[in-house]
Amino acid sequence: MVVLGIETTCDETAAAVVERPAVGRGRILSNIVLSQTDEHAAFGGVVPEIAARAHAETLDAIIARAMNDAGASFASLDAIAAASGPGLIGGLIVGLTTAKAIALVCGRPLIAVNHLEAHALTARLTDGVGFPYCLFLASGGHTQIVAVRGVGDYVRLGTTMDDAVGEAFDKTAKLLGLPYPGGPQVEKEAEGGNAGRFALPRPMLGKLNADFSLSGLKTALRLEAEKIAPIGAQDVRDLCASFQQAVIDVVADRLRCGLKMFRAQHGAPTALVAAGGVAANAQIRRVLQRVAFEAGTTLVVPPAELCTDNGAMIAWAGAERHAHGLHDTLDTAPRPRWPLAEVRAAQAALIPAPVAPEPPREGA
Ligand code: KG4
Ligand code: ZN
Question: Residue 285 and residue 278: Cα distance in Å, rounded?
Fold first, then answer.
C-alpha cells in the first residue's frame, strides 16, 4: 500500500510517499521537508499568517518533488493523507484542501490525519513496534504520556497543566536571547554549562499522577537571570544547563509514574516510545533510556528527522488508517483543536468494517 502524506500544521511544509507492507515496518520512498524557520526567526516564534502564505506558495512544488523522488505517479497511490489538525488553521486549510483536490482527481480515498496520532505511530513505521506501547510525546505544542493500544485507540495517562516541554525550551531560549527555535540552542549552550549552579524547582516531582507543569520552572529561571543581570555567555550556559537538568528530572519522574499507570491499566508495554521534536535532545534521550530500562522495557526513538514534523509520519498514519478502512469524506473540516483522545470518536461515524491484517483492538 502506497500513500502520499502532507504536513502543514505549523512551520514545516512537508510531503512524503510511504509504503506500508501487510506486516512489519514501513518503507519511506521519499520525504521532503521545507522548514520556514528563517521566515519566523525575526519574530521569535511562528507567525500564523506568514506560515499559511508560505505553505500556499511552496506545497505544490514540495509534493511534486516527493512524488518524483519516490518514482510514483498519482495513479499508483492507494490513498492521500493530510494532517488536518491540531495546528494553525491557515496551514491546515492549505494542506487539507490540496489533499482533497488530489484525492478527487485521482479517485482515491482521503485520510484526514491527526498530527499527534502521526507522531504516536511513527515508531511503527521505523521499528515495527507492536501494540500496546507507552508513548512520550513532547513537542512545541504538546506534552503527553499515552497508552497506544491500537490504531485510533489512545488513552492519555498524563499531560501538561501549562507549558509543553518544547515550549518551555523555546521560552527559555527567548528569555536568554538565543535564536528561535530554542530547543536545539538551549541543548547546545547547556553542553558547556554547570547544571548545579542554579537551584531551579522540579514541579510535580513525586506526585502520583503522570502530569507535568513547567511554567513555574520557567518563572524561576527568569528570576535567577534577573538576579545576576546583566548576564554573560557563561551565565547563559549555566542557566541552560540548570534548566535542562530540571526538565530531565521532571520528565524522568513523570514517566516513571506514567509507566506504572500503564502497567496497572494495560499490562506490560512492548516499548517506551519517544516522539515529537523534544525527543531530538540527546540528554533527554539518555534519561528516557534509563527510565525504560528500570521499568523493564526498551526505548524506541525514531531518528531525529522523523521526531520533528515531517510528511512521512502523516503518510504512515494515513496508511495505518487506510489498512483499517478508516477514510474521510471530502467535506471533512480542518480541526485546529483536536485532542488525541477524540480521534476515534471523531472518525467513528465513518468506520466501515475493518479490512486490516491487524484488526483494531476492542472499541477501536
Ligand atoms: O514536533 P515538533 O517538530 O513540532 C511541533 O509539533 O511542535 O517540535 C518542535 C519543538 C520545539 O519546541 C523545539 O524547540 C523542540 O521541539 N526541540 C527541542 C530540540 N529540538 C527541537 N527541544 C529540546 N532539545 C532539542 N534538541
Ligand atoms: Zn509535531
Answer: 9
